[in-house]
Amino acid sequence: MAKARRHDHQGLQHSFDRFFTLYVVFNHLYAEATFQLANRGQVRIHNRDRFPDAQAAQEYVVQFLGADRLLQQLNDDPDAQAALAALRVQVCNGAFNLKLNMVTGDAQPDKDADLCRRLTGNNRNEQAAAILETLYAVRCNMFHGRKGFHPIQRALLDPLNVILERIIEILYLALDGGQQVVGPERR
User: Domain limits at 80?
Assistant: First the structure.
């Protein structure tokens, strides 16, 4: 987290580097949450040779934390709340193609529209899952070379970095058995 915070400067490179760094931390935490769910018999890892990364990063985090808890703790933090509002605008304005075809890399506007619908809807389970799905889609686009290194990306990455950092804090505390941390004292 200290390394990620060193990337808290203005500029495209810092936005990308911060996301990469934060996602590595998030990856470790959602893997641990998945193992805890599996040990409790709440999820089953079907193939012991392959970790269910997509499910873990999206579905299992919501299952581990609970949609209400995740959304409440995100919305209790003013920075995260503002970042969520900015994220909804960016996902819904059509400036970004997030849900790409896994083979061809082609845009899938119908899936992006569905993501927007779930991010802005009233179903809390869908909303929480859509936040995590957006993070995972951006991760996939970046890690697989589908996200261009252009200044417009900051409009998406900067709010995602705020949200991702807060989700890491929420997940870490839940894994540690702690309570929520809100406000400036968490920094």
Answer: 2-182
